[in-house]
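Please, structure for the following, as tokens.
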Amino acid sequence: MEHPNPVQKFLKSLECSVCGTIHSPNELQTVCKSCGKSLVARYDLQSAAKALRKGDVAHTGDTFWKYLPLLPIQDEENIVSLGERFTPLVRLPKIGKELGMPNLWMKDEGILPTGSFKARGLALAISKAKELGVKNVCIPSAGNAAGASSAYAARAGLKCFVFMPEDTPSVNIKECQAYGANVVLVKGNISDAGKAMSGARKSNPDWFDVSTLKEPYRLEGKKTMGYELAEQFGWNLPDIIFYPTGGGTGLIGMWKAFDEMEQLGWIGSKRPKMISVQSSGCQPIVRAYNERRNDSEFWNNAATIASGLRVPKPFADHLILKAIYESRGCAVAVPDGHIVAAVREMATKEGFFICPEAGATVVALRTLLSSGFVGKEETVVLFNTATGLKYPDIIA
């Protein structure tokens, strides 16, 4: 595995995102023992700034593991990898021309192992779980996280127990079964799957929960999107990022990465506006943003064709909203019918078969461009979080 200096380890502690309580990174941790909120990995960035040069890091390969000194794995032998690589940052010339936007880009996470951005977070979570002696992992998922956890657990030699809504796309279910995971289908949405998993854990206390932000390390995998983006733009950041938001780990992770890079001296204080995109059929973050709240309320009867956006109440909603407010961004919801049209448009005009969650970002861009929130000359990045090949029914 290529990275700058494998003997240097800068992980310092785990800190509660709300009350600030410090936890040891050398023990298995879930959420804060004081208040039950998400834990966040903290690094000795002052020492790291003296030891790491961004130019040296940039020349150590095309895998996100080159950021290992700023990741939580202490022993390289515990890395569980399926050959992750930098994902492409590709200009969208045709749609950009139609919209009068010469600086419109898409970051395509669909080329990662298991076909989605979930590979980033689960690669780190499973690697750290292995390092800390875990033998069994469990996760509730609407699709792609289940596939990634199943694949990385298989690679690591861990048992994986997956709880999924019964209407999860069949390709996701079969994918998990192919990796040898134990799959339980549950009536309802991901919240119902989470409740079923919690019930099952009462008689299986050795199952380690790798749910979104209920352990500290998936966030560290997702933050690598922020490091990659900065490097791909020559250590400058775009003006605006459109991010499809279910659990929101990637949005939170990128915001964390930007802060870390500034402390390292790799970038300045400029930040992109972070745009959280949801479906009109499940928009807890949008409603909270419109009401200027710091947390969200449960969205009843959540329904959307974009399964990754069907999260009625993100566990770390306070961190999603914090990033939106601090960046002077916003949250916007779009209808499913427009999402499907956007998926078709991207395929026929740009040659990208994107996932429906990414289709939502295309619709949101048009909405905010029309309102004037987005300027035509601004550098804008849309995130495609998974390959459209995992959603054949979208086109059918």
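The longest helix spans residues 249-264. Residues 11 and 72 are 6 Å apart (CA to CA).
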